[in-house]
Design goal:
Blueprint (H helix, E strand, L loop, with lengths): L2 H33 L10 H13 L9 H4 L4 H11 L36 H4 L8 H9 L1 H4 L13 H13 L18 H17 L4 H11 L48 H9 L1 H4 L13 H13 L9
Helix pairs in contact: 4-8, 6-8, 9-11, 9-13, 10-13, 11-13
The structure holds heme C (2 copies).
């Protein structure tokens, strides 16, 4: 015994101490897992997505906003993944699917509100049923069901991230034989295409610059424009003129490039994001007979992305609206 016994006793005490600490840690960890489940159904991954998606999505400066602009860049596949995780416990999504805790949701967008055959709705939502679901009513329902219809039977906190909501709505939209059309900016009149397009495009595209993605714009440019255009400082003209510094530059005035007569009437005015938007939406409506054989970019968000990319390629990029 003696020295060595004392030592082994000390050793045992240390071992026990380490073991106990380990046990306590392990237990604490278990408890944390029990009380803070990683996939809390009530509060979806909102905080997380909110963090990772940062500023552009929130776009707080534009005030109470319609979901419609976000639908242009919404990802129905992401919406589907989210719905599988957060909604499928209560809803089915296939045509003729059974009602569960909540009604089957096939064809819900564009269909009558709270009226799925064979499902018994709460009085709370019956009082709110007015006409058909459209994009904005669906958006406010999914933001917070209980604010939309206090006392609703849908025990779900809501989707707080606007882009996630847009993704989910894009997915719901796809669940139909003929999906509800997404409304666009006021239609351009055929009579005065350029003028009307200028007016129609301006407010729509301006809100989209806030969330424009230069990298996406670059990818589109590589794919669709780079066959005809360079975009490097001092780059040579190709089928079309070099586009370095084009935002703010005089239209159709690149030195050394021979433009078609179709664009002469539009030459000399500085390109603004809005006039570029009109041009890129439909070159041949903007300047009938132009040599730029390109159908145009119909999607507003993609156009905004491309313009943001053009703007980025300049000595001093302009501030987009
Ligand atoms: C805990 C169960 C539950 C979850 C989770 C849930 N819902 Fe619901 N949902 C319901 C119930 C119940 C109703 C009917 C509401 C009522 O009667 O008050 C409903 C109604 C709806 C409606 C209206 C249907 C109609 O016929 O007009 C939509 C749309 C909807 N839910 C979408 C969703 C989406 C999208 C999610 C996931 C992001 C979701 N719900 C998550 C239970 C749920
Ligand atoms: C098939 C070749 C071709 C493609 C593809 C093409 N362009 Fe062009 N682009 C031209 C030509 C040619 C002109 C000159 C128009 C004229 O003379 O009528 C032009 C003119 C322009 C101008 C005006 C330049 C100036 O000097 O004011 C811009 C801006 C522009 N294109 C952007 C684009 C973008 C962005 C894309 C892709 C989304 C694209 N173009 C795709 C051939 C093309």
């Amino acid at each position: 015994m003696g020295k060595s016994g004392k030592d082994s006793l000390l050793g045992n005490k240390i071992a026990a101490g380490v073991l106990t600490a380990g046990l306590i840690l392990w237990a604490a960890n278990r408890v944390a897992h029990i009380f803070i489940p990683e996939e809390a159904p009530e509060k979806p991954a909102i905080q997380l997505t909110g963090l990772t998606q940062a500023a552009p999505v929130a776009a707080p400066s534009s005030g109470p906003e319609s979901i419609i602009p976000l639908l242009a860049s919404a990802d129905a596949a992401k919406g589907q993944a989210f719905v599988q995780q957060q909604c499928a416990a209560c809803h089915t999504f296939t045509q003729g699917g059974a009602n569960g805790v909540g009604p089957n949701l096939y064809g819900v967008l564009g269909g009558p509100m709270f009226a799925h055959a064979g499902f018994t709705y709460s009085d709370a939502v019956k009082a709110k049923a007015k006409g058909n679901w459209d994009y904005d009513s669906m958006d406010s329902w999914l933001t917070s069901p209980s604010s939309f219809a206090s006392g609703t039977g849908m025990s779900y906190a809501g989707i707080h991230n606007p882009q996630t909501r847009a993704d989910v709505i894009a997915y719901l939209r796809s669940l139909a034989a003929s999906p509800l059309p997404i409304p666009t900016a006021p239609p351009a009149s055929a009579a005065a295409p350029a003028q009307a397009a200028a007016q129609a495009a301006a407010p729509g595209i301006d809100t989209l610059f806030v969330s424009a993605d230069i990298a996406k714009g670059q990818a589109v440019f590589q794919q669709q424009c780079s066959v005809c255009h360079n975009i490097t400082k001092g780059g040579h003209n190709g089928v079309g003129p070099d586009l370095y510094g084009i935002v703010g530059a005089k239209a159709f005035s690149a030195p050394g490039f021979t433009y078609s007569s179709a664009v002469q009437a539009k030459a000399g005015q500085p390109w603004t994001p809005d006039s570029l938007s009109d041009w890129l939406k439909a070159p041949n409506s903007y300047a009938s007979g132009t040599a730029m054989s390109f159908a145009g970019i119909k999607n507003d968000q993609i156009r905004a992305d491309v313009i943001a990319y053009l703007n980025h390629n300049a000595d001093s990029p302009a501030k987009l609206p």
